[in-house]
């Protein structure tokens, strides 16, 4: 099983959109000074929102990036916020980079692989909340079925490389009550843009239960830092 911490970030208002990726990389560099953090988080992919016009259809400009962190195990997600390295090194730097402390916008999820190609350098990352009447397990099952069916039907017709769905498994922080996080990876920005232009592909971004409210947020991103 692959467990992840995934966060949907807004920058410190004192940073411009263009300054944010570098400030974020500097924050990540602090983690290299923290053996306890290195032991709990085995891989990091920082995905900054693609800037410029036109904005891709169906994507949000309200957030500045998504961080995907692969965990050593699920216990690491429970332990990390009380870790001495996090409290003394990482947390004091967070408000320089972000609008709030990271713990307040981080989700813990279990990965379900849909398509196993390597990650590209661009990703459409979606955060999805279920309708109130639908149990979380059924919502995730419906999403997985949709992704597998649509990607199979559209094989060769869309440029999606790697695709995974991450089911949220620990209680989310207030304001981030999402149940599933989807990742659609692409080698080129043009490929990502082509998917958002496709009516059939938009179904993959909206999900199986559109209910008239803002149940999904999709961010068009590019990788600005990755380790290992």
Automatic annotation (TrEMBL):
Protein name: EthD domain-containing protein
GO MF annotation list: oxidoreductase activity
Pfam family, one: EthD
Residue ranges of domain EthD in the record: 12-101
InterPro entries linked: Dimeric_a/b-barrel, EthD_dom
Species whose genome carries this gene: Denitratisoma oestradiolicum
């Amino acid at each position: 099983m692959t467990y992840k911490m995934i966060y949907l970030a807004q920058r410190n208002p004192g940073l411009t959109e263009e300054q944010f990726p570098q400030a974020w990389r500097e924050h990540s560099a602090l983690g290299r000074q923290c053996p306890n953090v290195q032991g709990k988080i085995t891989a990091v992919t920082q995905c900054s929102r693609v800037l410029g016009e036109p904005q891709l259809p169906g994507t949000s400009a309200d957030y500045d990036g998504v961080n995907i962190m692969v965990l050593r195990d699920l216990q690491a997600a429970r332990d990390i916020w009380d870790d001495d390295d996090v409290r003394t090194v990482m947390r004091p730097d967070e408000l320089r980079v972000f609008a709030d402390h990271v713990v307040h916008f981080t989700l813990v999820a279990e990965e379900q692989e849909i398509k196993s190609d390597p990650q590209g350098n661009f990703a459409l990352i979606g955060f999805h909340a279920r309708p109130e009447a639908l149990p979380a397990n059924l919502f995730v099952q419906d999403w997985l079925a949709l992704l597998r069916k649509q990607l199979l039907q559209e094989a060769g017709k869309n440029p999606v490389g790697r695709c995974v769905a991450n089911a949220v498994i620990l209680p989310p922080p207030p304001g981030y009550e999402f149940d599933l996080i989807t990742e659609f990876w692409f080698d080129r920005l043009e490929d990502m843009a082509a998917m958002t232009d496709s009516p059939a592909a938009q179904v993959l971004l909206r999900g199986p239960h559109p209910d008239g409210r803002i149940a999904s947020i999709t961010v068009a991103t590019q990788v600005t830092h990755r380790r290992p």
